[in-house]
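=== Structure Prediction Worksheet ===
Name of assembly: unnamed complex
Input type: mixed (protein and possibly other molecules)
Chain count: two
Listed entries:
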Amino acid sequence: QSALTQPRSVSGSPGQSVTISCTGTSSDVGGYNYVSWYQQHPGKAPKLLIYDVNKRPSGVPDRFSGSKSGNTASLTISGLQAEDEADYYCCSYADNYTWVFGGGTKVTVL
Amino acid sequence: EVQLVESGGGLVQPGGSLRLSCAASGFTFSAYWMHWVRQAPGKGLVWVSRIYSDGTNTIYADSVKGRFTISRDNARNTLYLQMNNLRADDTAVYYCARDSRYTPDYWGQGTLVTVSS
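=== Predicted Assembly ===
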């Protein structure tokens, strides 16, 4: 049950794109298409952005997109906006009927 | 509108116990698996436990196995987490979350548990 690996921080200017990686193993990210991404602002609850690797819940802007290759999933934020400054977490269903989260990535809008 | 409201957090001494509750509304509670996820101060999210919709199956992270018990009362639309033998490293905000096809989708606002003497 080791945490998935995410970069500690990424940054970009308004309008740019940033990509956050989430690396696991064949026992989690690589083995299942149940990868999700969450946005968390300080003091707030996590909000679901992406599920099933690349699906967006209704109401989530299409600036947010997800993908997966092998044991690594990615979240891309296109057209970065000031309100996108937050912490982002990946999550994957894993072997033995468990779930595992990434360590989180702080996105800074320059 | 889906709502999840946690309660029961507070300050407890090492070795003590607490029971957290999560009141659900806005959806058919008895039809969904539910999770507990925690977040230590300044740290990331950590999955804790999951329970089936009918309560017949539960699973735990290794770090809490044997100390925590997840349960639910579908008649009261309430999820619980009984936490025993608490340790300092259990200090965290505890969130309940609804599961939709292996994805925690809706989350409560969390309740803070502090384990300290």
